[in-house]
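Hi R.,

As promised on Friday, here is the backbone we talked about, encoded as C-alpha coordinates. Could you run it through your design pipeline when you get a chance and send me back a sequence?
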Protein backbone atom coordinates (compact mmCIF):
# COMPACT_ATOMS: atom_id res chain seq x y z
CA UNK A 1 0.00 0.00 0.00
CA UNK A 2 1.37 3.42 -0.89
CA UNK A 3 1.74 6.32 1.53
CA UNK A 4 -0.76 9.21 1.46
CA UNK A 5 0.02 12.08 -0.90
CA UNK A 6 1.19 14.47 1.84
CA UNK A 7 3.69 11.91 3.17
CA UNK A 8 5.21 11.32 -0.28
CA UNK A 9 5.31 14.96 -1.34
CA UNK A 10 6.27 16.53 1.99
CA UNK A 11 4.61 19.48 3.66
CA UNK A 12 4.82 23.22 3.11
CA UNK A 13 5.21 24.57 6.64
CA UNK A 14 4.54 28.10 7.79
CA UNK A 15 6.87 28.91 10.69
CA UNK A 16 5.62 30.72 13.80
CA UNK A 17 7.19 31.81 17.11
CA UNK A 18 5.73 28.71 18.82
CA UNK A 19 6.26 26.13 16.02
CA UNK A 20 4.62 25.73 12.62
CA UNK A 21 1.37 25.01 10.79
CA UNK A 22 0.64 23.40 7.44
CA UNK A 23 -2.34 22.07 5.50
CA UNK A 24 -3.65 19.43 3.14
CA UNK A 25 -6.90 19.48 1.17
CA UNK A 26 -8.77 18.15 4.20
CA UNK A 27 -6.80 19.12 7.30
CA UNK A 28 -4.83 21.84 9.03
CA UNK A 29 -1.95 20.73 11.26
CA UNK A 30 -0.56 22.85 14.07
CA UNK A 31 2.71 21.81 15.75
CA UNK A 32 3.60 23.63 18.96
CA UNK A 33 6.99 23.21 20.63
CA UNK A 34 6.55 23.02 24.41
CA UNK A 35 9.10 22.70 27.23
CA UNK A 36 10.54 19.17 27.47
CA UNK A 37 8.78 17.17 30.15
CA UNK A 38 5.39 18.81 29.59
CA UNK A 39 2.57 16.58 30.82
CA UNK A 40 -0.92 16.29 29.34
CA UNK A 41 -2.42 17.65 32.56
CA UNK A 42 -0.45 20.89 31.93
CA UNK A 43 -2.21 21.38 28.58
CA UNK A 44 -5.54 23.14 28.04
CA UNK A 45 -6.78 22.99 24.46
CA UNK A 46 -10.14 24.16 23.17
CA UNK A 47 -11.04 23.40 19.56
CA UNK A 48 -14.19 24.96 18.16
CA UNK A 49 -15.44 25.37 14.60
CA UNK A 50 -13.90 28.85 14.16
CA UNK A 51 -11.73 29.24 17.28
CA UNK A 52 -8.69 27.64 18.86
CA UNK A 53 -7.18 28.21 22.31
CA UNK A 54 -4.08 26.52 23.70
CA UNK A 55 -2.34 27.13 27.01
CA UNK A 56 0.52 25.19 28.54
CA UNK A 57 1.35 25.44 32.22
CA UNK A 58 -1.11 28.32 32.60
CA UNK A 59 0.51 30.39 29.80
CA UNK A 60 -1.49 31.21 26.67
CA UNK A 61 0.37 29.96 23.59
CA UNK A 62 -2.20 30.26 20.81
CA UNK A 63 -5.64 31.80 20.81
CA UNK A 64 -7.92 33.31 18.20
CA UNK A 65 -10.40 32.91 15.39
CA UNK A 66 -9.35 30.42 12.73
CA UNK A 67 -8.94 31.56 9.11
CA UNK A 68 -11.87 29.37 8.04
CA UNK A 69 -14.31 26.93 9.60
CA UNK A 70 -13.48 23.43 10.77
CA UNK A 71 -15.50 20.46 11.98
CA UNK A 72 -15.24 20.99 15.73
CA UNK A 73 -15.93 17.44 16.88
CA UNK A 74 -13.28 16.01 14.54
CA UNK A 75 -10.44 18.19 15.85
CA UNK A 76 -7.82 16.46 17.99
CA UNK A 77 -4.67 17.29 19.91
CA UNK A 78 -1.86 15.04 21.10
CA UNK A 79 1.22 15.53 23.23
CA UNK A 80 4.16 13.77 21.60
CA UNK A 81 7.38 12.87 23.43
CA UNK A 82 6.37 15.38 26.14
CA UNK A 83 7.76 18.21 23.96
CA UNK A 84 5.41 18.69 20.97
CA UNK A 85 1.68 19.35 20.81
CA UNK A 86 0.11 18.40 17.49
CA UNK A 87 -3.35 19.75 16.72
CA UNK A 88 -5.27 18.39 13.72
CA UNK A 89 -8.27 20.32 12.44
CA UNK A 90 -10.64 18.97 9.77
CA UNK A 91 -11.53 21.65 7.21
CA UNK A 92 -15.21 22.18 6.48
CA UNK A 93 -14.44 23.24 2.90
CA UNK A 94 -12.15 20.57 1.44
CA UNK A 95 -11.37 21.70 -2.07
CA UNK A 96 -8.07 22.88 -3.51
CA UNK A 97 -9.40 26.43 -3.79
CA UNK A 98 -9.59 26.59 0.02
CA UNK A 99 -5.95 27.23 0.71
CA UNK A 100 -5.71 29.02 4.06
CA UNK A 101 -3.50 32.10 3.78
CA UNK A 102 -3.06 32.28 7.55
CA UNK A 103 -3.82 30.11 10.55
CA UNK A 104 -5.85 32.71 12.40
CA UNK A 105 -7.90 35.53 10.85
CA UNK A 106 -5.19 38.14 11.36
CA UNK A 107 -2.20 36.17 12.60
CA UNK A 108 0.39 33.66 11.44
CA UNK A 109 0.04 34.44 7.75
CA UNK A 110 2.12 32.55 5.24
CA UNK A 111 4.56 34.76 3.36
CA UNK A 112 3.83 35.07 -0.40
CA UNK A 113 6.35 32.38 -1.43
CA UNK A 114 5.06 29.88 1.16
CA UNK A 115 1.45 30.69 0.19
CA UNK A 116 2.30 30.00 -3.46
CA UNK A 117 3.91 26.66 -2.54
CA UNK A 118 0.90 25.70 -0.38
CA UNK A 119 -1.49 26.43 -3.24
CA UNK A 120 0.62 24.42 -5.69
CA UNK A 121 0.69 21.47 -3.30
CA UNK A 122 -3.07 21.53 -2.74
CA UNK A 123 -3.64 21.68 -6.50
CA UNK A 124 -1.37 18.66 -7.04
CA UNK A 125 -3.13 16.84 -4.21
CA UNK A 126 -6.46 17.57 -5.95
CA UNK A 127 -5.14 16.20 -9.28
CA UNK A 128 -3.85 13.09 -7.48
CA UNK A 129 -7.23 12.51 -5.84
CA UNK A 130 -9.11 13.03 -9.13
CA UNK A 131 -6.79 10.58 -10.90
CA UNK A 132 -7.40 7.99 -8.15
CA UNK A 133 -11.18 8.48 -8.41
CA UNK A 134 -11.03 8.18 -12.20
CA UNK A 135 -9.00 4.97 -12.11
CA UNK A 136 -11.31 3.51 -9.46
CA UNK A 137 -14.45 4.34 -11.45
CA UNK A 138 -12.89 2.91 -14.62
CA UNK A 139 -11.45 -0.14 -12.82
CA UNK A 140 -7.83 0.78 -13.60
CA UNK A 141 -5.20 -0.49 -11.15
CA UNK A 142 -5.00 2.46 -8.74
CA UNK A 143 -1.45 1.71 -7.64
CA UNK A 144 -0.24 2.67 -11.14
CA UNK A 145 2.87 4.84 -10.65
CA UNK A 146 1.69 6.96 -13.58
CA UNK A 147 -0.85 8.49 -11.20
CA UNK A 148 1.72 9.59 -8.61
CA UNK A 149 1.81 13.41 -8.64
CA UNK A 150 3.83 13.78 -5.42
CA UNK A 151 7.01 14.79 -7.25
CA UNK A 152 5.31 16.77 -10.01
CA UNK A 153 5.90 20.42 -10.75
CA UNK A 154 3.00 22.66 -11.61
CA UNK A 155 2.91 25.91 -13.52
CA UNK A 156 0.19 28.04 -15.00
CA UNK A 157 -3.27 28.39 -13.52
CA UNK A 158 -3.12 26.62 -10.17
CA UNK A 159 -4.61 29.36 -7.99
CA UNK A 160 -7.93 28.46 -6.40
CA UNK A 161 -7.28 24.78 -7.11
CA UNK A 162 -6.41 25.02 -10.80
CA UNK A 163 -8.68 24.51 -13.78
CA UNK A 164 -12.01 22.72 -13.36
CA UNK A 165 -12.17 19.63 -15.56
CA UNK A 166 -15.40 18.26 -14.07
CA UNK A 167 -17.56 19.41 -17.00
CA UNK A 168 -15.45 17.75 -19.71
CA UNK A 169 -17.12 14.93 -21.66
CA UNK A 170 -15.46 11.52 -21.57
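Update: got your reply. Pasting your designed sequence below so it's all in one thread:
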Amino acid sequence: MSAPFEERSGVVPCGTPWGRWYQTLEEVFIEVQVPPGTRAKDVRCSLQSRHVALSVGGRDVLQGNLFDSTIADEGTWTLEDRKLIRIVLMKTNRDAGNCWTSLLENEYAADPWVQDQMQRKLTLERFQREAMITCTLNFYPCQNPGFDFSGAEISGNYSKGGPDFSSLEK
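One thing I noticed while checking it: The chain has a mean pLDDT of 83.

Thanks again,
M.
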